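Per reviewer request, we include the raw input and output of the structure prediction for the construct analysed in the revised manuscript.
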Amino acid sequence: MGLTGWGCVAGVLGQGWKERYWRTGLVKPGDGARVGVELFGEIHRAFNSLDRSKRIRDNFKRHLENQERVDAEAVLLVADRVFAAVSDIADLVTSVVLVAEGENKMKLRPSSSVPDCLVEAIRERVSRLRNVTFICPPCEADSQLVFARRSGQIDWVLVASQDSDMLMYGVSNLVLGYEVCLGVLVLFV
């Protein structure tokens, strides 16, 4: 994580910040919640749930470096996992805004370690869900989600990974971890 990540958060909020600020919330069906989800966090969470995640990640990296064809089976496997996770969330809330990472020319490193074909496979799958909107903004997903929250388009910002700059934006209702359990969306706020 970079300068705006967990190290910076600990510097701003002080040691032990997780224990002071971390709490749990629940979103139940019928609550009318609208959520924004960072796509790349969901992709990385799907990677981590796979037995062969290192092999798949290495294949994706070599593909992005134009050294190897992408493993189509791996793309479908990861896309299916992400679709299942987004579908589980969509079943419990009024609407989901799924935000991909846009091209950012100001970044010092490439903005993505994810092949475009994977993003497209996920977009194709989630387009079948009636209450999910897929957005690929001209900026970072974090910025788009902060904008959506501040403008009232969403109630909660869900980030599956702990690699998020949103704490530095001061966004309210930021969720840095969540699980769907027994028909309830459990939020680690």
